[in-house]
């Protein structure tokens, strides 16, 4: 087993990996020889004193963990830098921070005497990449998940990777190597972000008026935002989705199969297949009218109507699901 360094800096946006890296170090040294501190109450001087202190019992190695080190100021970093010139031989100092940059003074000091471990989520748009992160986490556990199911998991749980990792662990344990689909995610993962938008779009795509209204109510109930902001966000989500369904209907009319459409639209092929299925439930005129109706809803929610926003919202959802022609200007 490799010898431990005198200091480790562990940071990054992939918090579950940060936690696992810390857990591996604690397992190597032992919890009984680990001292946990926080930079909220611990200065650089305090951390150095803890590193230099003798343990209550004689041990080969001690672990001093300081979390939230991004809070440390210049004086704390100066003390740390001085300590790392001659660190305690039996102490491993572990600094855990939130998105500490590799070129920061803290990272440079740690790199001189030890190791800097950075675990970041992909940078191309955090939420957009989280489903792929979920797929990778499950693949590491020997479990496959459908791309739509991974997307559904993110919609249900939100962007907190700690919570996502917990749900990934539960699903992996339940699956026992079996592939996970949307039904399994819906059955085993409780919603704690907003209600999943795919519930709403799926209900609309099957022209289920009752399902659309129930899904929209759950979204509003579970959101901590002001009602008007929620309604505007959901209206925008519906507009985007209906627009994609309309695009797929036109591609289908041109003879473009779903797989080719997925490449053309730069979207997951399973998702595009679903769009094609939903497009088959509406005429082109109905989809055009739905876009117009949702645009009028957006205007109404932004002050263009004297009716309550919830009423305008409900009426619009019923109209676009049933296929009622959008009201025209006189």
What does this structure look like?
By secondary structure, this protein is α/β, with parallel strands linked by helices. It is 59% helix and 8% strand. It has a five-stranded parallel β-sheet with strand order 2-3-4-1-5, with helices on both faces. Helix 3 links the parallel strand 3 (62-67) and strand 4 (91-96). Helix 2 packs parallel to helix 3 (74-84) and helix 14 packs antiparallel against helix 15 (309-322). The protein starts with 6 loop residues before the first strand and ends in an 8-residue tail after the last helix. Residues 326-330 have low confidence and may be disordered.
Principal-axes shape call = elongated
Write down how many β-strands occur, each being a DSSP E stretch of 2 or more residues: 5
Please report the distance between the alpha carbons of the first and last residues: 80 Å
Uncertain regions spanning at least 5 consecutive residues: 326-330
From the alpha-carbon coordinates, what is the Rg to the nearest angstrom? 26 Å
Structural class: alpha/beta
Tally of helical runs: 15
> What is the ordering of alpha helices and beta strands?
EHEHEHEHEHHHHHHHHHHH
Estimate percent helicity. 55-70%
Task: Give the DSSP E fraction (strand runs of 2 or more residues).
Answer: 5-15%
pLDDT average, as an integer?
Answer: 84
């Amino acid at each position: 087993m490799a010898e431990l360094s005198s200091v480790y800096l562990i940071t990054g946006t992939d918090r579950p990996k940060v936690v696992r890296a810390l857990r591996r170090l604690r397992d190597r040294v032992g919890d009984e020889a680990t001292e946990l501190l926080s930079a909220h109450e611990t200065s650089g001087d305090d951390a150095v004193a803890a590193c230099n202190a003798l343990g209550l019992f004689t041990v080969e190695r001690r672990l001093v963990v300081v979390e939230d080190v991004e809070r440390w100021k210049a004086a704390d970093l100066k003390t740390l830098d001085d300590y790392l010139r001659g660190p305690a031989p039996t102490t491993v100092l572990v600094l855990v921070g939130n998105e500490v940059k590799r070129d920061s003074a803290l990272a440079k000091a740690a790199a001189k005497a030890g190791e800097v471990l950075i675990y970041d989520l992909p940078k191309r748009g955090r939420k957009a990449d989280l489903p792929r992160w979920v797929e990778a986490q499950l693949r590491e556990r020997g479990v496959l998940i459908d791309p739509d199911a991974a997307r559904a998991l993110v919609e249900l749980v939100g962007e907190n990777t700690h919570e996502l990792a917990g749900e990934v662990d539960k699903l992996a344990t339940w699956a026992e190597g079996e592939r996970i689909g949307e039904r399994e995610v819906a059955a085993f993962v409780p919603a704690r972000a907003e209600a999943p938008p795919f519930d709403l779009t799926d209900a609309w795509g099957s022209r289920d008026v009752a399902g659309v209204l129930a899904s929209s109510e759950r979204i509003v109930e579970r959101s901590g935002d002001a009602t008007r902001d929620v309604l505007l966000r959901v209206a925008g989500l519906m507009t985007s989705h209906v627009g994609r369904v309309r695009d797929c209907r036109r591609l289908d009319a041109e003879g473009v199969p779903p797989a080719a459409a997925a490449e053309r639209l730069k979207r997951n092929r399973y998702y595009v297949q679903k769009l094609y299925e939903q497009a088959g439930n509406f005429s082109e005129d109905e989809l055009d009218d739905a876009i117009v109706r949702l645009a009028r809803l957006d205007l109404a929610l932004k002050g263009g109507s004297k009716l309550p926003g919830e009423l305008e919202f409900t009426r619009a959802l019923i109209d676009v699901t049933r296929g009622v022609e959008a009201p025209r200007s006189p």
